[in-house]
From TrEMBL:
CDD domains: MFS_SLC17 (cd17318). It is a multi-pass membrane protein. It is found in: Apical cell membrane. It holds the Pfam family MFS_1. It catalyses: 3 Na(+)(out) + phosphate(out) = 3 Na(+)(in) + phosphate(in). The chain crosses the membrane at residues 20-46, 77-96, 168-190, 196-219, 260-283, 303-325, 337-358, 364-383, 395-418, 430-448. Its main location: membrane. Keywords: Cell membrane, Glycoprotein, Ion transport, Membrane, Sodium, Sodium transport, Symport, Transmembrane, Transmembrane helix, Transport. This is Solute carrier family 17 member 1. The lineage of its organism: Eukaryota, Metazoa, Chordata, Craniata, Vertebrata. Belongs to the major facilitator superfamily. Sodium/anion cotransporter family. Residues 36-453 form the Major facilitator superfamily (MFS) profile domain. GO terms for biological process: monoatomic anion transport; phosphate ion transmembrane transport; sodium ion transport; sodium-dependent phosphate transport; urate transport.
């Protein structure tokens, strides 16, 4: 597979698979907006001064409380509420990864997105009922979002020709970067104009509409789609002629555990998520401690890295597939090249943030560069499981996403502990630790990574024609 990719010319860019890719892109945008908006609305939801309904409250404040209900949540409760969505996502990663290779992706993604969106619509009601119902609502939302996050990757097992996997994957996944950018920009305006409950109503309604659209427009196999052209159907199926199906096949768990290429991908995903969480979760804190800007400016500056990540995420897929389509590099070379860029460049720019950024503009430039260059990994380690085991891609994505989330939770917790001890001078320690994790993981990946189908993932008797 590594050196025998089909060279046949693809049909026009305006094809059904790119339309479905764009639809999945917007599904990811709305899903991430639903996830991120609570981190901003909680500022409007929490009453940090007088108890709710104080007798001394003015008429103007009473009207504002009707539009923006407020609750007396401690910082500890706020932290539990904000993180509760991750517990739902952690629960479903591996089960969904396994089931996505057996059941309909069309139904799984559609139902999961609608579940997440219905949970978003219910959040204002749950918040009125108390902390426990709100936490439960967020956990359920995490179940839906975790399902979409893992199952969507199985779309490209049957819909993406090998020479287009990079661009189709990066275009669809880049919605995960655009979503927070939109949420950070739109939430404040919606809260001010309509009240914070409408943030959840708007994003929830959009998610329901997209979930229904996905169920109507997407089919699991291009051969079954009523709107696909004959040329496009033949192009996709012929390019995947040697790809096997995992339906009804037992998982070779022991072979997977002994697979060094799979361990290399897993360690790379751990480093990727470690870096991603540090740069995106702690950007507002870093900006506040270094630049001392107000909340509005901080929100805008914190949104900029997401915008550049979205743009670069779309570009890297095009470049990676260009290298492959013109036979400039082998598949494994492309995977290692972009993984190297995605782990080393953020480390380099992160260190520059601490030692070379002396002013406002240099700080913002290095922060944007550090955050945006992480997306090179999309066409590196994040897509590599599809190269080595397409028939088990869903399960492997579930495993690697779980390992990645472990890295993200560890890094964010550890960074919080380091900052709690010394908020002003702890940033170099955080970025040097991030660089060390990335270099160690990258070294292991460069030594052991592969891009051809592994022996344990082959099944010649079940070749799909």
């Amino acid at each position: 597979m590594d050196d025998q990719l089909p060279s046949r010319k693809a049909p026009s860019f305006c094809s059904l698979r790119y339309g479905l890719c764009l639809l999945l892109h917007f599904c990811n945008v709305v899903m991430m907006s639903q996830r991120m908006c609570l981190s901003l609305t909680v500022v409007a939801m929490v009453n940090s001064t007088d108890p709710h309904g104080s007798p001394n409250t003015s008429t103007k404040d009473l009207l504002d409380n009707i539009k923006n209900p407020r609750y007396n949540w401690s910082p500890k409760i706020q932290g539990v509420i904000l993180s509760s969505i991750l517990y739902g996502m952690l629960i479903v990663n591996i089960p969904v990864g396994y089931l996505s290779g057996i059941y309909s992706i069309r139904k799984m993604v559609s139902c999961a997105l609608i579940l997440s969106s219905l949970s978003s619509l219910l959040i204002p009601l749950a918040a009125d009922a108390g902390e426990i119902p709100l936490i439960a609502c967020r956990v359920v939302q995490g179940l839906g979002q975790g399902t979409v996050s893992v199952a969507q990757h199985m779309v490209w097992v049957k819909w993406a020709p090998p020479l287009e996997r990079g661009r189709l994957t990066s275009l669809s996944v880049s919605g995960l970067m655009l979503g927070p950018f939109i949420a950070l920009l739109a939430t404040g305006f919606i809260c001010q104009a309509l009240g914070w409950p409408f943030v959840f109503y708007i994003f929830g309604a959009c998610g329901c509409a997209l979930g229904l659209s996905w169920f109507i427009l997407f089919y699991d196999d291009p051969k079954d789609h009523p709107c696909i052209s004959v040329d496009e159907k033949e192009f996709i199926t012929s390019s995947l002629v040697a790809q096997v199906s995992s339906s009804g096949q037992p998982l070779p768990i022991m072979a997977m555990l002994k697979s060094l290429p799979l361990w290399a991908i897993s360690l790379g995903c751990f480093a990727f998520s470690w870096t991603n969480h540090i740069l995106f979760l702690y950007s507002p804190t870093f900006i506040s401690s270094k630049l001392h800007v107000n909340m509005t400016e901080n929100g805008l500056l914190s949104a900029l890295p997401y915008l550049f990540s979205w743009l670069l995420g779309i570009l890297v897929g095009q470049v990676a597939d260009l290298f492959l389509s013109r036979n400039m590099f082998r598949v494994i070379t492309v995977r290692k090249l972009f993984t190297t860029l995605g782990l080393l460049l953020p480390s380099l720019f992160g260190i520059c943030l601490c030692h070379l950024s002396s002013g406002f503009h240099s700080t913002i430039i290095f922060l944007i560069l550090a955050s945006a260059t992480v997306v090179f990994c999309i066409v590196g380690i994040l897509i590599n499981p599809l190269d080595i085991a397409p028939r088990y891609y869903g399960f492997l994505k579930g495993v690697t996403v779980l390992i990645g989330m472990t890295g993200g939770l560890t890094s964010s917790t550890l960074a919080g502990i380091i900052l709690n001890r010394d908020p002003e001078s702890s940033w170099p320690k955080i970025f040097f630790l991030m660089a060390a994790i990335n270099v160690i993981s990258l070294t292991f990946y460069l030594i052991f990574a592969k891009a051809e189908i592994q022996d344990w993932a082959k099944e010649k008797q079940h070749t799909r024609l």
